[in-house]
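TA notes, week 10

Several of you asked for a full example with nothing omitted. So below is the full record: structure tokens for the whole chain, then the designed sequence directly under it. When grading your own attempts, check the secondary structure regions first.
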């Protein structure tokens, strides 16, 4: 890793830029999204995977601001893809301009702007900003995680059977049915489930101890880049997806994201394996 890269400075920049994008997201929703039926919005991978003017305008703003503040860095964004492959030691920003777009388009408040920062594939800093509440989640590697400046700590729970677990469901209907079947098999094994529809906020909720664990398959890099670091820096055990085609040594599926309080992480992983999580 480039020793000249300051994670705390990148955390500060990620917060600054994400806040600006969060303000724009609300302005665009008031101007454009609320005036249209969700059925009229463009889609990507399926009929329920909507994309809005907010996604596009917010990512354009983030790219513009990073071009000024960090002109030597590269960007991978949900809407615009990768502008270049990073050189060794080069900073890469992982941008989800609006995580939880379906919530955003329906007027639900659970969506966020997520900016992660990596060097040579290693997470270095990140921020998740909620436009509606104004909450700011952030972290730098080795420096802990914060919510509005307050230090975050994951749950101290040690009994998986009492855990409140968050998860998500895929846009693809066939996969969503498999995931729902897994959830039904797991329902009697944990304390309760939550479904927010925003992966970055699910991960931040683990960091805050609001939920004890979170798992999901089929996420993209921008969905978890910032939130996974925030959860990890709050003391959670975090499992990120493997590289495409990589082996699955823990039996959770190569695409699995798992974040959990340290006292239940192994037990939750065991339950997921026992109920066929790798098959979803």
């Amino acid at each position: 890793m480039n020793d000249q890269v300051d994670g705390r400075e990148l955390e500060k920049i990620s917060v600054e830029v994400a806040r600006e994008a969060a303000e724009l997201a609300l302005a665009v929703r008031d101007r454009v999204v609320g005036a249209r039926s969700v059925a009229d919005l463009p889609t990507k991978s399926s009929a329920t995977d909507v994309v809005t003017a907010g996604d596009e305008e917010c990512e354009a703003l983030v790219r513009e601001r990073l071009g000024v503040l960090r002109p030597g860095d590269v960007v991978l964004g949900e809407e615009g893809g990768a502008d270049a492959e990073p050189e060794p030691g080069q900073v890469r920003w992982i941008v989800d301009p609006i995580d939880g777009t379906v919530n955003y388009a329906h007027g639900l408040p659970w969506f966020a702007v997520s900016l992660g920062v990596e060097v040579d594939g290693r997470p270095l800093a990140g921020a998740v900003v909620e436009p509606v509440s104004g909450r700011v989640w952030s972290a730098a590697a080795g420096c802990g995680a914060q919510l509005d400046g307050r230090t975050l700590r994951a749950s101290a729970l040690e009994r998986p059977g009492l855990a409140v677990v968050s998860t998500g469901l895929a846009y693809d209907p066939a996969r969503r049915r498999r995931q729902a079947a897994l959830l039904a098999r797991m329902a009697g094994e944990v304390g309760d489930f939550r479904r927010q529809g925003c992966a970055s906020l699910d991960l931040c909720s683990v960091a805050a101890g609001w939920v004890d664990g979170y798992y999901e398959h089929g996420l993209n890099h921008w969905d978890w880049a910032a939130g996974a670091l925030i959860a990890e820096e709050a003391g959670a055990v975090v499992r990120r997806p493997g590289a495409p085609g990589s082996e699955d040594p823990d039996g959770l599926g190569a695409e699995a994201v798992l974040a959990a309080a340290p006292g239940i992480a192994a037990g939750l992983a065991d339950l997921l394996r026992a109920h066929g999580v790798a098959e979803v």
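Residues 160-279 form a domain with the D-Maltodextrin-Binding Protein; domain 2 fold (CATH 3.40.190.80). Use that as a sanity check on your answer.
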